[in-house]
Amino acid sequence: MSLSAGLAQLRPAFSAAFCMTHSCAGTPRTRRQGGIAMMEFLIVALPLLGIGMGSVEFAHWQLTRQAVDHAMMEAAREGAVTNGDPVAMRRRFDAALLPLFGGGTSSETLSEAAARMAARSARIESETGVPAMRLEVLGPGRSSFADFADPALNAQFGRRTINNDYLAEAHARDVQRGWPEGRGPSSGQDRFDANQLRLRLTYLHAPMLPGLRALMKSLSSDETAKTDDAYATQARARAGMLVMTREFTTMMQSHPVEWEVETYRAAWGAAQIGDAPVANTVVGALGELPGACGAGACLPGSSPTIPSTSTPWTPPTSPGVVQAGDPACGISVCCAPA
Questions:
Q1: Where are the beta strands (DSSP E) in the chain?
Q2: Is residue 317 domain-resident?
Q3: What is the CA radius of gyration of the chain?
Q4: 196 CB-near residues (< 8 Å, 6+ apart)
Q5: TadE-like domain: which residues (predicted)?
Q6: What is the domain range of residue 149?
Q7: What is this structure's pTM?
């Protein structure tokens, strides 16, 4: 047999062996394994891509929440020293939130960040039909002012106002005039409750992850039957927004003033004023002062006694004036004898 004839006989065997390990068009093995590598890549890559994008979305959410928390704390602190002024709180909130939009160290860069923040709010309002955030004032509420408003301060501020001076002494006077544990008949609160500024902010967050907004839109129809919060439901249904709710409570360091809800809405876009009583759990012995000394002033080491009068003690007409017979005399306020 010639060499060429022998090679011709071996050629089919070599071809079959080659096609078992390489791609050969038209062979059964090629038809069975075509696209396997692509399928394996998709099986591995798609979950990894989803995890990566989800991590970015989660980091964006956390960063936004931290920035909103800080801005809300700054707004509440500003309200505590400005009689709860809605305009002052919003101005401080915006200033504290600027780092989320780039911030800056000069007036030019700060103005650019403020413009980006305003553009973001305008875009969300255009997409959802509601303001980009809503402020709820949980306290003090209307019944708080009904119980504790000071007539002299009402005239000074032009609105019902709660006196923030000498809370422990004022609480003792409330107990003295017959209010159980110093709690007002309308609110069920004591003066410590009524002097707490309690705020809740609902902040609309636009997700970055593709498809998440469409998912939120599809779920909003089922959610409508489960909630009466039209603000949040509308934001989800129209634009697939994620709703972030943050609360902050601080003790007032100035006299709380009852601002109209229209004033809050003008400053915050959307606002509500609640009136839910809050049970106080921190007054304890400090707020339950025992009474006054019979002579109006106490010597060191003497024991105070609660005066026995048929007429309940009433606050003075001018804030800060201490009267003889005040239940706080000799306890934590120096009073001259009558």
A1: 133-139, 196-205, 242-251, 271-273
A2: no
A3: 35
A4: 139, 140, 249, 250, 251, 252, 278
A5: 35-77
A6: 48-273
A7: 0.70
* Tokens read off for 188: 């069920």
Residue 15 DSSP label: H
CA atoms within 13 A on the CB side of 205: 25
Task: Give the bridge partners for 205, in sequence order.
Answer: 242
The total number of structural domains that make up the chain: 1
Model confidence over 83-135: pLDDT tens digits? 999 999 999 999 999 999 998 889 999 999 999 999 999 999 999 999 999 99
21 in Cβ contact with 177 (< 8 Å)? no
The Cα–Cα gap between 52 and 13 comes to 49
Residue 175 lies in a domain: yes
How many angstroms separate the CA atoms of 16 and 30, rounded?
12
Residue tagged 């400090």 (tokens): 286
Contact 169, 326 (CB under 8 A): yes
pLDDT digits over 125-157, tens only? 999 999 999 999 999 999 999 999 999 999 999
* Residue 62 domain-assigned (yes or no): yes
For the beta sheet containing 196-205, the strands, ordered from the edge strand earlier in sequence to the opposite edge, are: 242-251, 196-205, 133-139, 271-273
| DSSP-derived 3-state class of residue 139 | strand
Residue type, 312: P
Q: Is the dihedral of CA 143, 276, 230, 136 positive or negative?
A: positive
Dist CA 147 CA 308 (whole Å) = 24
Residue 196, φ and ψ in degrees, nearest 5: -100, 130
